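Let us practice reading a record.
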Amino acid sequence: NVSLGGSQVCVVGPSSSQKFAGESAVSRKCDFFLRQPFPDQCYSCETTLVVIEPKKGKPCYLLAMNQKEANSLRITIEKAESALSKSSEKQSKNSSYSRGPNGIVSRTTSALRRSFASNKKVDVCGEDAIENMKSNHDTDGLERINCSKLINADMVHSDPIWPELDTLRGCTDFLTSNSHHARGLEHARLMVDHFKGCYQMGDSSLSDEFRLEAWRGTMRRIIKALVDQLLICNPSLKSCMTNEEHMNQIWLACETWVFGSVHDKIMGACKQMTAIKDNMMDETLARLEKADPSTLGVRREFETFVLGDALYQFKLINKFTTPLEKAICLRKTINCVLEAIKTVETSYTGAMQDMEELLPCTDDLLSFMVLLMARAKIQNLQANASYMENFLYINKDGSKGELGFHITNFLAACNYLQSKEIKDIISQLEPKSGHVPGSCFPVPSVH
């Protein structure tokens, strides 16, 4: 995606996109966009538009890579419209809010979201319609495609190349399902065995950042070698090279399989690296185990939600061996809380302002995680945090998406447990006698 501010842009079909990009009939407002080359994918697929026409305001347009994706996107929009139209009856006319991807309250400001809340017509407009506009010199119709609001490409999803790629077992099944993958897997196993048997995890005198980056580089080379072999040896995967979403799925499947194979060595090194911090955290959490949830910032109305299914889900984190599965465990943990809150919200009949206050915010999510850590009695939390932060999506240097949000929340909880505020809470919970001045922990009595 390219953010174009308030510029008008034109989107055309693949067969004539290169030619049309140079036509002088296009308004000067399009110059910025048209000077930029189209992605290679646009030349090899049937580019299709989804047109959203609200009763008020300008139309919104979404670009899909083919007719199938466009139909899927249209269905998604219509479902969102139906859901929002039902909830809008409970909302005040002057205040509009929506739930974000993690259940957090956010104000509705997007033009696309506003169109969801209004009555609108949704059409799928293919290349033929665009060609007709061109042949009729309908530059006004073409210029109506407005990209003043950046549309998230994640809204358009291709069918997954394999089910259950969010588990180690699913990724393994995908890689072993085709005989064309045998050569690549054998080569990857040799590299993994060499890493496990010969690779030195680094002198402890080296900085943690240097050691982690060295491990990441080695893992990245093994994963890339496996991905390249799959694309070379399996003809059915060639089409994935022009589909970014499918390429990400292939990479993630290989990444998950590799880390499932080297977990003991990598995680063992992370445990050694964070041993001191983990010991201090275990001691802190032991003193917070009996603390009232409200002292940790958890609101009374949320206590039962956090200490129910969410606590059970969180306790499973050490049963998983890959960064992906551990991060998904965090997401499921928080989702257990949010789903329980959503149930209460659905049955709520009070004032709108009170319902808005019931919805959790980011501070609540941090408090939820601290309380879960205090009650779950899980070891090596710092090692788990380092493992997920440094080895999930190692081919991406930027954001890790929704899973990255949950990892960040987990890291924030770990840091908060080392803060002065937590030490003050513990000092208030412990008996006053037997304290050493300046210390928040009591000195045990000797009998």
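A brief commentary: Confidence is low (pLDDT under 50) at residues 1-45, 90-127, 140-156, 433-447.
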